[in-house]
Known about the structure:
- 2 copies of one chain form a homodimer.
- Chain A is mainly β.
- Helix content of chain A is about 10%, strand content about 35%.
- The first copy, chain A, is built from 5 helices and 22 strands.
- Chain A has a 6-stranded mixed beta sheet with strand order 14-15-22-21-17-18, with no helix packed on it. Chain A has a 5-stranded mixed beta sheet with strand order 2-1-10-5-6.
- Chain A starts with about 20 loop residues before the first helix and ends in a 9-residue tail after the last strand.
- The interface between A and B is large, with 79 and 79 residues.
Amino acid sequence: MRRHLADVSTPSRLASPGEGLGMDELALAARNHGMPLEAMRHDVTPPGLHYVLTHYDIPHVPSETDWRLTVSGRVRRALNLSLERLRTHTAVTTRVTMECAGNGRAFLSPRPVSQPWLVEAVGTAEWTGVPLRVLLDEAGIASDAVDVVFTGADHGVERGVEQDYQRSLPLDVATGREPEVLVAYAMNGAPLPPQHGSPLRLVVPGWYGMAQVKWLRDITVADAPFNGFQQSVAYRIRETPEEAGTPVTRIAPRALLIPPGFPDFMSRTRVVSPGTVTLEGRAWSGGAPVTSVEVSTDNGVSWHTADLEPDHGHRWAWRRWSHIWSAAPGDHVLSARAHDEAGNTQPLEQPWNLGGFANNLVQQVPVICPDPAPTGRA
Amino acid sequence: MRRHLADVSTPSRLASPGEGLGMDELALAARNHGMPLEAMRHDVTPPGLHYVLTHYDIPHVPSETDWRLTVSGRVRRALNLSLERLRTHTAVTTRVTMECAGNGRAFLSPRPVSQPWLVEAVGTAEWTGVPLRVLLDEAGIASDAVDVVFTGADHGVERGVEQDYQRSLPLDVATGREPEVLVAYAMNGAPLPPQHGSPLRLVVPGWYGMAQVKWLRDITVADAPFNGFQQSVAYRIRETPEEAGTPVTRIAPRALLIPPGFPDFMSRTRVVSPGTVTLEGRAWSGGAPVTSVEVSTDNGVSWHTADLEPDHGHRWAWRRWSHIWSAAPGDHVLSARAHDEAGNTQPLEQPWNLGGFANNLVQQVPVICPDPAPTGRA
């Protein structure tokens, strides 16, 4: 039998009711990783705890010195930039909360079979680099330009299509200041780690992770909308395969709790002692600043306004919130819900779509609060 | 209904035939993470790519300055050591390949339901600290001592037992030089990251991960064998729950390939062009030095001796190997197999046990090599 590229890809599919995760989903979960939620204690996520999603392989980059970023297409002057050259520009550092567009996917029913995220696909880092608009200015954008296409060095097959990872931004986003897009060469003050795009990546504050092209090697200014696989086929909000759908762009609001107390190893159920418990967590939204966070300790029946830390001036980073809870013996389900300035909030019913994108369904944290004196079962 | 600690734990169990992974296994897979196999290109695993397993939560350590390590029990002089004090001892740095005892568990049939590792639960780091025997010498071991017990700050429930994570080493291992056990405060020249035990952990070169107690806060010398949960209940090789079993100790030999070519996103199947392909990977064994590696490109039917890099003097770290393969169009399954000086090697049939420990079954990497001119299906 002759073998072709299309043979390596299975069609996209939904899991059957009650179908457990398959070895293909596990293979992705073992490679990629979320941020353990207790890491939300840190304003900036410590190295190694920030979520990572790699579509294909982490590319082999033997030498940063040899890396070149090209800027071409509808520009007056094509650029061919070394890292040394990029570092001669004034550096900008931005604190950004980044989240995978597929975060929450594994909770959906039916479950789209792909990277099976629960809610941990998030992290906050300080990214340092050159504003993209500075590089585009230097190249000189032609008057007929409409889209800017970014190409990474990661190479693979997806649904039968062999590709380098590519995404685009509309010209107004690429050259805008809210957010200001960065071509970043440092994360938390150190060179990018291999899994975060070493030596160069795009950072688009407020947008989901698919826009943040890693191992960035080319920027092409185009006079027509880009219709590559990751733009037109993947990362669309649609309910049926026939729909064109709408593109996945900015991060929907989300609040998450640091699960209180301590866990059971296998069930991850939390144990909390009766009495006063400070619940805390983080909240973010890519569309507009977070204005309030509500907390429920009775599985969403009643909601209480949490204390939100004062505006810290990092528009694109999560904000800390807290709420005092008086825990009584019994079973509880804890939740938090973010609201943003544009009036967006989180749903209590799953916002289902075929790709499992932007599922910001309210988190549920089951907690057992044991009796103070466990002398036997009632 | 009154609630008790035991209510949070489900009994240990085996998955039914064909049962997919459950949400409990996924919750562990989302928190913990393996090392993407392409990271075997690096002699020392870059930060964030080394595997991580946390039994409970990563403990909150507000200040390293306040951290104390106590050494007590059957000693002449109890110690209470700050990090500053530990750093006054001569520092030792050892390169160590560490592997989770549960690596390979998710391939077992039936599958023990726990952290569902494939083969990625491994990594290599340079650990810096004080030899444990130096601290035990300073404390003065009593003549009736037999076991040394290590307590971490991570706290949780496991099968109904509330516990701080605790493990022990026999006195001869704790004070030995092959391996030399370290109380480590640095990883790859930097302070330990939170998930790797900040500020202090045990490093037992050649042993599986369960021995490498993180967030180390107490060392107790005991005059009787320790029989805590992680020593007597978990981490035993047994086929039935009734058996006492044998303890999990040193790392069994394993060789892994860096999957060649490029992957399909979902199936992770590899695509390799016809022609000469350099296969490479790493091999290690905790029991004795690796002496040879064999490679098969026909699903284990025939085996070829790989080129093993010369002894680099890092006894406890993996060794690089390579093999030239002439890839012909068609389907292939690639494997590698390590042999060590003690005559141990890897099985071709699963070495099954109830906990899913030490499964060093030979890796299988399916590869599709397409026809050079894909003009249609035959």
